[in-house]
Structures
1.
Amino acid sequence: MNPQQNLCIISGRIRLARNLAHTPFPSQCSADVQHALAERIRNEAMKIDNIRFRDMSLSSLATRHTAALVERHLISKEFASKGNGRLLLSEDESISIMINEEDHLRIQVLCDGFDLLAAFRQADYIDTALDSALGFAYDNQLGYLTQCPTNLGTGLRASYMLHLPALREFKEIHRLSEFLSKRGIEIRGCFGEGSKAYGAFYQISNRTTLGIDEESTIQFVESVASQIIDRELEARKKLVSQPTVDDRVWRALGILKTARSISHNEAVELLSLVRLGICEEVLPAASVPDINRLMTEIQPGCIMTASGADMEPSVRDRRRAEIVRIGLAGCDMNG
Amino acid sequence: LLCQICHKRPATKYIKQISNGVTKELYVCSSCGGQHPLSYVSHAVNVDFFNEAGRSDILDQPCKTCGMQYADILKAGKVGCPDCYIHFRQSLLPSIKRIHGNDTHVGKRGTPSVMVLSNDDRLKELKEKLSDALLKEDYEQCAVLRDKIKAFEQGGEAG
């Protein structure tokens, strides 16, 4: 992976689904039983060497805080909507364990660039430690047993979040999605589905978990991601050669640096153009990781959590514009 | 689909009789199917309700760990506990294979969580298999199963 390819990756994620043997899945357990299970899992997780977890009960968190956890990909939407789940979060927030999601445990490790294998090794280490203490449900034929049959086998979901503005511009995503679907890879928009994927941020992940081992799954997802990125970079060459693109990128930067109120969708769309402009050197050098961080900070739950209060959408839009202006203060307007 | 005799258990057998040009059809559970007068069960076939063949698990008995019935699983599209996969293995395998294009795990290996069947359960399972084989008129299989039941009742290993 060369640096330019790496710039198309926002983040990577590994997730393992695990369940305790001979124990009904959370949806079949009473609140008391779920609580007792969570205590047991938590106590064992706290004993794992070299990782310190923060223990959080979702029921004790403000809604805005839970929303922020979803926006930062630390928990799933389903887990957030349950309301009574338990979350163990590592200090650097790269590792999270959702307790009593659809399965008893969802072990998740995030990584910045093209490094899913290292993330998997981390998840595998936690899995092995917890398995020996708790005894996970496993069958020689079906592998790790999960509530939904779509996760049987390795229970592994490996995914990348990619920035694909040129492929979206040339309406390639739909065709790509159909092509990948037949090969066991899912692609979906991170902010809004299909052609409305705001900002052209997409997540690709494996669908098959039975009959393919962990390393092969990761290699497959990486190989697909790499090929998608190559196509994106080809399409970008064509896109930036169009005479109107530099104008669109500069205007996007202009609006973001001056707006006093901005919706999330508009901000994502414009930041996507600015990100493209930086990667393709249409704009003067600026930090792509800073743009990535800004993308996270401007989401509704994150804004309200940082401010420590719930906000009306109109107030939030003004605060978002302020965050963006501060975030882009170092971005030079003199091309 | 519920048994058309007891209206309680899920139907696992399809009984069809053609007499004087009149066809009679009945969907029954294995309990009721066994009690039904043999005159009626003159021509019975094990039907493929869920487009699957070769089921050998006990569809009208709930999972011992979570109490989930096979009918509940079909309705919810999800199982109740990890042991459901072992209890209803034969019925679930074809769908699993359809989802993944494969039905055998490769990769990291855990410790198999074995669900032990009681002697009564195993005997009942063998008898149900025998009843199925009889309905299919698979006499070779019947002989094998009768030997297994005999050996089991005498305290031997039923395999």
2.
Amino acid sequence: LAHKLSIGLLWFPGPRATAYINILKELDIAINVIVVMKNDKGNIKGLTQEAATNNYSAQYFDVDYSLQQYVEEFGVRIVATSATHINDLTLSEIIFTEHVQDWIFCGGGILKPHLFSKGKRYIHVHPGKLPNFRGSTCFYYSILHDLSLASSAFYMSQKLDDGDNLAITEFNFNLRITEHMPLFFDYILDPWIRALSLKKVLLDMLSENLKVVNGEPPESNRTYYVMHPILRNLTLKKLNEHYDPKKIEGIFECK
Amino acid sequence: VIAQNMVKSSVGKHESDIPKIECGDALPNFMLRHKRLLLLTKPVSDRAFEKAKQGTDSVISRLSYIEKDMKNGELSYADRDYIFRLEKKFVLYGELFTHYDHNFTATSEITNYPALYIHFASLLLTLYLIKADLNSLNTAIRLIDHSVLLIEKGHDGCELSQLKSCLTLEESAFGKLRFGT
């Protein structure tokens, strides 16, 4: 029998959501409800083929594991909505009628105040060590800055990438990105490091041991802005230069 | 073509506007695209430039003061606040006006003025070179990208000496990033 967790998932179609249900499957967790949002850009062209060519599912997650598969396997209820963003009022109507307090959110954006009424809480995972690496492309910045990589799960507040931390995970990596892997960074590495922090949160929930963890004090309130393509390219170069063929390839959680 | 697409895409403000990552050696062509500015740019129109520099709310004038005041990359709280607010304005709206009041409301109708962008880019590149501040480098590259696109469209040019200095700073910044020198 699967473990039952009384939480909801706000499903925003895309590789991140897919990584999250891979983790739910791995932990054998059936959640209460999944609210399915719409995302025109959720289907990443070429990802299935790239994943198959490079065997991503062996080390990371199965990009083809579908919501339908998870729902059928674990008997989870789904509610469909036409909402395309988190602040859509049709979405909040559903959230408020469901009897779960905690929602995992796998999209983006800043939550408006109305979403926090009735005690609802939202768990988001960010691809950087909060509070000092904020912004959606901050994992590029941290690699470029000092070859570091981390993700942070937190209860969202009304500010960008801000709230009570629930889990911070730091990673080592040994990766060589070839020209056949143009989607790896944004659609495998990013969702995967987020999913690993989510995994910690889910395990803490299962053991009823979920608590707020202390982060470092912020050095600045400045957000890292979306990184320019040439700096992304140089990040990749730096990562490849760090690659050691004598060591195992992959992304590894620091102990 | 890759360099051209990179320059164009940097005008986008959101993650989803950025094309998939380029895995090859993109830097040489990208820098050439920026260096084309030296060939393309027209002399700045004296009248327009004077106007852009005039007034206590002129961005160019304020940036010049900040440059003079800056010691080894150290900025006063007020100067840092001004630069980061200006940067945020540019990132959020994709353009800057030549004049802003103390509330950062535009007080001029002149926008997308390459001379201002190159001036601001130079200051941010200096900050990167001294402080290794990657956000500043990122914004500086975007400002130069915008200038390339504007000058290609026939907008007013920028001061040649300022442009040369800015591109030299950019080259140094990429050198520092790649080789730590």
